[in-house]
Amino acid sequence: MRSLRGKSVVSLCVTALAVAVLAAGSTVAQATTKTLTVWLMPDAASFGTALADANKAFEAAYPGYKVDVQTQTWGDHLKKFDATLVAKSSPDVIEFGNTEVLKYSASGALTDLTSQRSTFANNATWLKALTDAGSYNGKLYGIPYYAGARAIMYRPSMFAAVGIKSAPKSYAEFLADGKLLMAKYGSDKDFSALYLPGKYWYAAMSFVYDAGGAIATQTGGKWAGSLTSDAAITGLNRFKELSDTLSRADKAGTEASQWDVFNGGKVAMSYSNGWESCCIAKVGTDWAFFPMPSSTPGKASPAFLGGSNLAVPTYAKNAKLGATWIRFFTNSNQMTTIANSGAIPNNTRMLGLITGAAAPVAQAAKNSWFVPTATNWVNVENANTLQNMLSAIATGSKTVKQAASDASDEITKILNQ
Amino acid sequence: MKSKSSIYSNISGIFAIALMGFPVYWMVVTSFKPKDDILSTHPSFFPHTFTLDNYSQALGKYGFTQALLNSVYVVIGTVVISMFIALFAAIAVARMKFKGKSIFIMSILLVQMVPLSALLIPLYILLTKLHLVNSLAGVVLAYVAFVLPFVVWTLRGFLVNIPLDLEEAALVDGCTKPQAYRHILFPLMAPGLVATAIFAFIQAWNEYLLAYILLSDQSKITMPVWLGSFTTRQGTDWGPLMAASCITAVPVVIFFLFIQKQLVQGVTAGAVKG
Amino acid sequence: MSIAAVRRRKISPWPYLLIFPSILALILILGYPIVKLLNLSFQKYGLTQIIAGRGVGVGLKNFTDSLSDSNFWTILLRTYAFTFCIVFVTIIVGAAMAHLMLRMHNVIRILLTAIFVMVWAMPQLVGISIWRWLFSFNFSIITSTVRSLGFPIANHNYFQNIISGFTIIGGCVAWGALPFVTISIYAALTQVPKELIEAAELDGATRFQVFKNIIFPMLFPIYIILISLSVIWDFQIFSHIWVFLDARPAPQYFTMAIYAFEQSFGQSEYGKGAAISILMIIALLGFTGYYLKQMVKIGDGQ
User: Using CB atoms and an 8 Å cut-off, which of residues 219-278 of chain C contact chain A?
Assistant: First the structure.
C-alpha cells in the first residue's frame, strides 16, 4: 500500500517534469525550419488578400522560408517590442503606427533602409506624411504602408432640409451652415451639428495648422512648443467656437466610437476617418464626405494623416529578407488590393483608386499635416498633453491662452528631455 | 453554522444577484445583439432583434479552437503544478516549526507586492535565456510563480483549521505519517484545495499581459490574447468579443459545477470540527 | 500535544524539504527579475541604453528625482485613499453578504454563488469594458433609464469629476473582488460550530454578543488575510483606471501603478519606472505593516 502511494507521487513528479521538458524541447526542435517573423497589427486582416498574396509570392521566391505573421495588439505591441529589444531577439519586420516610428528610428532600434529606397515600389510618389514619419535626420527607417485621412462625414438629408445646396467652401460658411442645422434640430439636447469631442486632438490641431500655426517648432536643434503663437491661438479659438456652438459631444471625452454616435442619428456632421462609413448602417445611404474647408475660402484645411509604416528592427535575425518581404507586401499589386479594400494606399498615384463617397477622404490625404518630427514626440502623446489642453479649453476650466501656454511648456520640456 | 432562511436575507440576496449579475447579463445580452444595436445611443435591456451572427463570427475567426486548447493546457499546468508544490510548503508552514519560517512567510507576502508590469521585461529576458519564450511551458512556469504565494498561504489556512488531535489519534492508532495525511488530512482539506484551485484556475485563465508578451506564434496564444485581436484601429468589434467571452466563460462554469459537489462535501466534512 | 511538542524540538530536515520546491520556483522565476528591477532603479535605462545593451549608472538620482517631485506625493496619497476606500467597502459588504448567505434560501444562495463564479469567469478586460459602457457619455444605459423615467437629463460625463470617477472605478474593482471575499468569509462562517452559538444563545447572549465574542474572534485570522491581500491587490490597480479612461488617464487619475507604468512604457524611462515601482513597494509595506506583522504571526503559529 505504502509503496504504491510513494510510486504515484513519484510518477506525478516525473510526469510534470516530462511535460515541462517536452514543451521546452519542442521549441528548440522548431528552430531548424527557416522562418521570417513579421509583426502586423490586426488591421491587415481587412485588406483583402494582400497579405496572403504577398506571403505566397515571397515563399515562392525564397523556397525554404516560411513567413510567420504574428498579429499584435495596438495597446501593448510596443511593450512587447521593447522587451524583444532588451533580449535582442526582435522580429524581422514590424508595423508601427506612423507616430510611433520616430522614437525607434532615432534610438537606433531600426535598420537604415535609405540606400534601398529605390527598390521599393512607388517610392517616388509615397505620401509625404508617411515618408516623413519613417525618416529621421534625412535617413529612411520606416517604409510607408497605408494611411488614413479624415474629412467631414455628413447627412445630405439634413443639409437639404435646412436649404444648404453645396458643401461649405470656407470656415465661415462651415460655421454658418452648422448654425443653421443647430437652429433646426438643436432643440433635441443630444443633437450636434458637428460632433466634436473635447479631446479630439487630430481635429483640433487641423485648425491650428490651417491658421498657419504648429504644435512645436525646431530652432538650432532645440524643440519648443509653439501653441502660444498668434496663429495657433487663432486655430484653438476656432476649435473652441465650434465646440461651443455646434457640438453637444462630451467636452472631456475622446473621439472613440464616434461613428456609433453618428449611427444614432443625432449628428449632422463629424470629423471622420474614411472607414467610419462602414459602421453606420442605421443612417442607410444618407451619408457623404466633404473635405474640411480652410479659413481661406476655396481651400481645404490640412487633415491629419494617420497610418502605418513597416520597419526592420536592428536585432532582426534576417534583416535583409525582412526588407525583401516589405518589398513584396508594398508592391503595386498588394497596394491595389489594399486601396480596393477602402484603405488609403501609400502613394499619391493610386489615390484615384478610391472612388465613390469616400473619394474626398483620399483627396484629403494629399493635403495633410503631421506631428513634430521630434525624437520624443510619442512621449508627448503618451503624456496626453494635447488632449488635456483641449479638454480644459472645451470645458472652459482654463482660458485658451492659459491652456495653450501650459501645454506648450510641457511639450518643450518633454521634447528636450 | 447555518440557520433557517429569513425573508430579509432572501430579499437582499435577490438584490445582490441583480446588482452583481447585471454586468454578466449585459455581456450575454450584448452577444446576441446585432452590430448596430451594441453601442446604441438608445440602449435597451433586451435585444430588439436576436442574432447568432456574433457567435458564428467569433467561432469562425482564425485560431479559436487552438487558443482554447492552449488556455486549457496553461490552466491545467498551472493548477496542477502550483497546487502540488504549494501543498508541501503549506504542510510545512501549517504543521511544523522550523527556523526561518517567518522569513519564508514574509518573503511569500513580499513577492505579491511587486507589480507585474515592473517585472515584465526582466521576466522576458530571463525566459529568453531559458529558451522558454514563445512556449506554453514558460507561461505555465511564470504563472506558477505568480499564484504560488497565494496558494501556499490559503492552503496553510485550511490546514491549520484541521485539529491536530485527529492526526495524532491516527498516529497512535498505528497509521504511518503519510497514511495519516492521506486518510485524515486530505479529505478534510478538500474544500481548501478546491477553493485554492479555483483561484489559480481563474488567474491562469484570465491573465493577458504576460501571455501576450511571452507568446508570439499565433498557434501558441491563449484565449485572453486571442480576444485582443478583436480590437483594431477601427475600435473594438464588441459583438463577437462578447460572444467569445461567453464561450470562454463556459469552461469555468463547468469547472465550478464539477467541483461544487466537492465544495459541499467539504463544507459538511468541516463540521466534524465541532 | 506534548508528544508533538517534544518531537518538534529536534531539527528535522522535513520542513526544509517541503518548502524547497516553492522556494526553487520563486527564485527561479522571480529572483532574477527582482534583482534586475533593483539594478535598473539605479540606472538611466531608456531606449538608447537598451539598444546599446547597457544602462548608465546614476546612483540614487531616480529615487531623489521622484521623491522631490510634488506629483509623486499627491499620487501616493491618492493611491492610499483609493485603496483604503475600496478595501473598506469590499470587506464590509463582503462580510454582510456572507452573513446574509447563511440565512438565505438554498436556491437563492446557489444562484448568488453561481453569479459570483460568473463574475470571476468573465475576462477581466471585458468586465471592465462593460462597466465602462454603463457609465459612458453616449451609450449609458443608466442615463437612458433615468430619461425613460421622465427626467430629461443631458448626457453626462461621469469622469469629469474625479470623486464620481473614482467611485465608479472603485465600484468596479469591488464588484470584481466581492466574490472572492464573500465566499471566503462564508466558507469560514460555515466552519463555526453551530453548537457553540446555540449554547451561547441559550445562555441569553444577544446576536451582537454572539458575533463579538464567538464569531469575530474565530474569523479574525481570515479577516486579517483578506484585508492584507485586498490592500496588496487594490494598491496595484491598473487595468481598471486604464480602461475606464480610454488608455489615456488625465493626471488627476494617476495612481502609483499608472505612474510607474507611464514612466516605464510611456516615456521609455525604465530606470525611473523601476525606482517608482520600488518606492511603491515600500509605500505598500508601510501601509500594510500592521497586517503583515499579524499575518506572519498567524503563519508562525499561535
Answer: 246-251, 262, 265-268, 270
Main-chain dihedrals φ then ψ at residue A67, nearest 5 degrees: -85, 120
pLDDT value at position C35?
A: 94
pLDDT number for residue B174 = 74
* CATH value at residue B204: 1.10.3720.10
Q: Do A297 and A409 lie in a common domain?
A: yes
Domain range for B138: 62-229
Name chain C's partners: 3 or more CB pairs within 8 A.
A, B
Indicate whether C141 and C266 sit together in one domain: no
What domain range is C132 assigned to? 82-253
What nine digits make up the cell of A163?
A: 436649404
Å between A64 CA and nearest CA of chain C: 31
Residues of chain A with pLDDT under 50: 1-31
A268 plus A357 within the same structural domain: no
SS3 track for chain C: CHHHHHHHHCCCCHHHHHHHHHHHHHHHHHHHHHHHHHHHCCEECCHHHHHHCCCEECCCHHHHHHHCCHHHHHHHHHHHHHHHHHHHHHHHHHHHHHHHHHCCCHHHHHHHHHHHHHHHHCCHHHHHHHHHHHCCCCCCHHHHHHHHCCCCCCCCCCCCCHHHHHHHHHHHHHHHHHHHHHHHHHHHHHCCCHHHHHHHHHCCCCHHHHHHHHHHHHHHHHHHHHHHHHHHHHHCCCHHHHHHCCCCCCHHHCCHHHHHHHHHHHCCCHHHHHHHHHHHHHHHHHHHHHHHHHHHHHHHCC
Is residue A56 located within the same domain as residue A121? yes
Q: How far are the Cα atoms of B129, B141, C54 from residue B126, in angstroms, in the given order?
A: 5, 12, 16
Nearest to B121 among A6, A82, A256 (CB): A82
User: Which residue of C lies nearest to A108 if distances are taken between CA atoms?
Assistant: C51
Give the closest-approach CA distance of B215 to chain C in angstroms: 17
Q: Which of C 166-225 lie inside 8 A of B, CB atoms?
A: 175, 178-180, 183-184, 187, 189-197, 215, 221-222, 225
Collect all residues from A whose CB is shorter than 8 A from any CB in C: 75, 78-79, 82, 85-86, 88, 103-104, 107-109, 189-190, 199, 248-254, 256-257, 260-261, 264, 314, 379, 382-384, 387-388, 391, 395
Name the band, by pLDDT with cuts 50, 70 and 90, for residue C2. Answer: very low
Whether residue A5 lies inside any domain: the answer is no
Enumerate the residues of chain B whose CB falls inside 8 A of the CB of residue C114.
253, 256
Give A383's contacts in chain C (Cβ within 8 Å): 262, 266-267
Residue B161, pLDDT > 80, answer no
Q: In the structure, what pLDDT confidence band is assigned to residue C10 with cuts at 50, 70 and 90?
A: low
Q: Which domain holds residue A82?
A: 33-149+306-368
Q: Mean pLDDT, to the nearest integer, of C238-245?
A: 91
Same domain, C99 and C88: yes
| DSSP 8-state symbol, A300 | B
Taking an 8 Å cut-off on Cβ atoms, the answer to whether C267 and A383 are in contact is yes
Chain B residues touching C197 at Cβ < 8 A: 1
Number of domains in chain A: 2
**Contact C300/B105, CB-based, under 8 Å?**
yes
Whether residue B227 and residue C126 make contact (CB cut-off 8 A), yes or no, is yes
Same domain membership, residue C141 and residue C94: yes
Rounded to two decimals, the ipTM of the complex is 0.86
CATH of the domain at C185: 1.10.3720.10
Q: pTM for this one? A: 0.86
Residues A118 and A253 in one domain: no
**Band of residue C62 on the pLDDT scale cut at 50, 70, 90:** very high
Among B4, B9, B153, B185, the residue to mutate for chain C (most C Cβ within 10 A): B9
